[in-house]
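Example protein
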Amino acid sequence: MVRLLLYTQSDNPYLIQALWIGSVLVVLWLMVMIVYQRRTRRRLQTELEELTKVRQNNIESEFVLKAMKLSTWHIDVPSRILYVDADYRETKGGLVGPPDFPLDVLPEILDKSDGQRVKMALENVCLGKTQSYHEVYRVSLGKGALYYWEESFGTIAARDEEGLPLRVVGTSMRIDAQKEMEAALITARNKAEESDRLKTAFLANMGHEIRTPLNAIVGFADLLPMIEDAEERNQIITEIQKNNYKLLNIIDGLVSMSKVEAEAKSLVKSQIDVVPVLRQIADSFAPMVDSSAVTLVTQFPIPELMMNTDIGKLKEIMSNLVQNAVKFTTQGSITLGFDLPQSDRLCLWVLDTGKGIAEADRQRIFERFVKVDEYIPGTGLGLSVAKSHAESLGGSIGVDSILGEGSRFWVELPLG
């Protein structure tokens, strides 16, 4: 066998060269394959890393969209159609709600006052007039006046060879909570401004109300030592006493109002007979009425009426109503009474023949120190206190009046 091989090799030198060349080619091929495999492995490893990064970026982007409750969309400018890419809002619908829709139907989706404005803004981006887009608008729900607020951002993502936009991308989010917060802040600001205005008016009116009886007291007190006639002295003393009482009522009103606002008085209900309570109130105000010009009477349909209520607040309510009638009635009569109970509720009232109240002033008459006539004192705090007490007892208060003929102040309370 060896002899045959040696014989063959020695007799065919070309075969030896062919074997050597073949071996070299095989080695070269193997080296090329090894290099190719290494390059392929590196390329595949790089692509795998890129895919991992893309996947990670997609996960992070999706997480951000979910956390922010956003929706993403794009507009194919040549076809003028808006497509939704992802929508993670809590309530879908509106601008990015449908999977796709033409831009021409946008005004039909949005509120009438916002549709044309938003469409024009998107048109300007699609035409390349502006680079970006940002609008706040209301999306109509198609159910009467129902809508929700939305805010959108957009920008040009691709252009053609001439620089005209091909693709516009954007995102949208609901901002109902933000709008509610803005409305609450505006309401709070308006209330603060109104409170400041009322406080200023209250202090001015309170100063006027206090100065009026105080000036009378000081003036008459200065005159008293110079008056020798007994009858004139008695008249001056009577005027001082009346103004003392007026000043005391104002101070009592301030104290009552401070208690109401601080909620220092809680309800203490008990079973009482309304009739003697009202008679006691009428008797207490009788000396303050000029009997020669005004009569103070009571009118009760039944001699006894039991009621479960806070007697202290009931007395303050009716006393303030009677006091108001005495203040503004110079002739005629003042009547304190109540109607027969209906549906477990009782209506108590004070009827007077005073100057009456204009219809425009009836709503604000229960505010503090309201003046419907610049030439006479205001209502003070009595009616405001009465209104607060009536509401705390679960009732309501109001007035029926004809200007020049008189007024009927009423309060409706539950019998309990």
Q: What stands out?
A: The CA atoms of residues 205 and 379 lie 10 Å apart. The chain has four domains: 2-65, 69-174, 198-264, 265-416. DSSP finds nine helices and 13 strands in the chain. The radius of gyration is 46 Å.
